[in-house]
Amino acid sequence: MRGHEDAAGDVREDTAGRGEAAVDQGEAAAAEFAEVAAFRDSLGLDALVDVHTHFMPDRVMAKVWAYFDAAGPLVGRHWPIAYRAEEERRLATLRGFGVRAFTSMLYPHKPGMARWLNDWSADFAARTPDCLHTATFFAEPSAADDVRRALGQGTRVFKCHLQVGGYDPNDPLLDEVWGLLADAGVPVVTHCGSGPVPGPFTGPGPITALLARHPRLRLVVAHLGMPEYEDFLGLAERHDGVHLDTTMAFTDFSESAAPFPTRALPRLAALGDRILLGTDFPNIPYPYPHALRALERTGLGPTWLRAVCHDNATALFTLPPR
């Protein structure tokens, strides 16, 4: 039998190990904060606005992380979570990056989820004033009531995930939803591109049909429409209410599988007032500063970057001036 002194030694060793890990994490975070601050300083910005970040109920987030860990069918590749931590630490990290406003993107994968997700998100926004109140919906009979209720709660942005939800945006169950959102002028961040794995209703076709019926919608195409970048750029060129977010675009991780065509960079530059910073924090497989440096290496210049990283979203969500 081992003695108390041996056991105490193990405890001291374990505690010391955890302490060293905490110091290492703290130093890594400080280095990342400094890198993002340098990026902001180079653009004359004291803050960023990130329109594509994820906050969810703990048990839902745990399931999402488990799905990424398993490289599930909708992920299709190894995808380590860079910022796996409890909620308060994730919030502190975003704020440490100088993000003045962000979202709590969440999404149902089956009927009956949207309303309780929205109730959680309303509470989260109430206790997190720098979060843009976010809501979602699903193609189900209660969809219009769910959206009407969320709008009444003060929602400022919706998330529509066609890949995970597996529904057609032109489903008759959503007709009233799109009308409500068009009338309200509330932006809808929509995962409609076919990355990382296509779904039955991803790609430009379904969204093109939707906008033909609801041309006043304010859609934010997530991930620049990856991998159908040029098709979704065309959609934005034809519809003034269509924006695109930069989530994961131009990073080494995405470029290895779905490179952005360099011939389309002038079109991206021309749409400069409708491109918004998004990152997918915390569910990204690389450090947050890499997402910003990836945008920088497009060569589109500081004026474009300033608009993307702050000014465009500030205008879209009528944020107070800094």
UniProtKB/TrEMBL annotation:
CDD domains: metallo-dependent_hydrolases (cd01292). One of its GO terms (biological process) is secondary metabolic process. GO terms for cellular component: cytoplasm. Residues 1-17 have a biased composition (Basic and acidic residues). Keywords: Lyase. InterPro entries: ACMSD, Amidohydro-rel, Metal_Hydrolase. This is Amidohydrolase-related domain-containing protein.
